[in-house]
């Protein structure tokens, strides 16, 4: 009588391919768990255990929708803060958010410049080529909170207002 093959235990763990390990800083290709839930699932396997893997994914790790929503939130905050004396644009709000996040999280600062005794902060760019997916998500998590705090509304409410503007259902966009 033939022996039954042992059934392999399988779990689905979202991963991300990184060219530099965040833990050891080696320039070596690493597949690391993506997110806290994936990290907990990965602990079900022994350290250094050889695993059989099947990877699927998209070519671009970041979402253009996420970036578009961020910019629409910046425009929404600019509109809400603007009055007859002060007119703001989305780029000014974006810069302010980057500076606020950068003061708390130094990885957002590209460099400091001193000109005539005044120190200037230059934040990093959030473009696709300058910020990878994990760092972008960290920034957006903190950035949306900062944006909502600037106009003293709930983060979810700000996102809903921005989405309404994207769909053209905001009163200002009706004809």
Architecture overview:
- Helices cover 40% and strands 12% of the residues.
- With 175 residues, the chain is of the alpha+beta class.
- It has five helices and four strands, in the order ββαααββαα.
- A hairpin with a 2-residue loop joins β3 and β4 (118-123).
- It has two domains: 8-57, no CATH class; 64-173, no CATH class.
- Strands 1-2 form a two-stranded antiparallel ribbon. It has a two-stranded antiparallel ribbon with strand order 3-4.
- The relative contact order is 0.11.
- The protein has helices at 36-42, 64-81, 90-104, 133-150, 155-166; strands spanning 15-18, 30-33, 109-115, 118-123.
- α2 (64-81) packs parallel to α4.
At a glance:
This protein has 5 helices and 4 strands, in the order E-E-H-H-H-E-E-H-H. It has 175 residues and is α+β, with helices and mostly antiparallel strands.
Characteristics:
single chain; 175 residues; two-stranded antiparallel sheet; alpha+beta
């Amino acid at each position: 009588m033939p022996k039954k093959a042992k059934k392999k235990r399988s779990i689905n763990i979202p991963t991300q391919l990184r060219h530099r390990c965040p833990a050891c800083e080696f320039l070596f290709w690493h597949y690391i768990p993506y997110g806290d839930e994936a990290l907990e699932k990965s602990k079900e396997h022994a350290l250094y255990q050889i695993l059989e893997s099947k990877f699927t994914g998209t070519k671009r790790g970041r979402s253009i929708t996420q970036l578009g929503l961020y910019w629409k939130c910046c425009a929404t905050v600019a509109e809400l803060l603007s009055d007859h004396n002060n007119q703001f644009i989305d780029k000014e709000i974006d810069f302010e958010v980057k500076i606020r996040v950068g003061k708390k999280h130094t990885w957002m600062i590209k460099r400091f410049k001193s000109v005539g005794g005044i120190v200037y902060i230059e934040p990093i760019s959030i473009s696709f080529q300058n910020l990878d997916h994990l760092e972008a998500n960290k920034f957006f998590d903190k950035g949306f909170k900062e944006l909502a705090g600037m106009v003293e509304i709930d983060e979810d409410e700000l996102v809903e207002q921005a989405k309404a503007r994207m769909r053209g259902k905001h009163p200002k966009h009706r004809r």
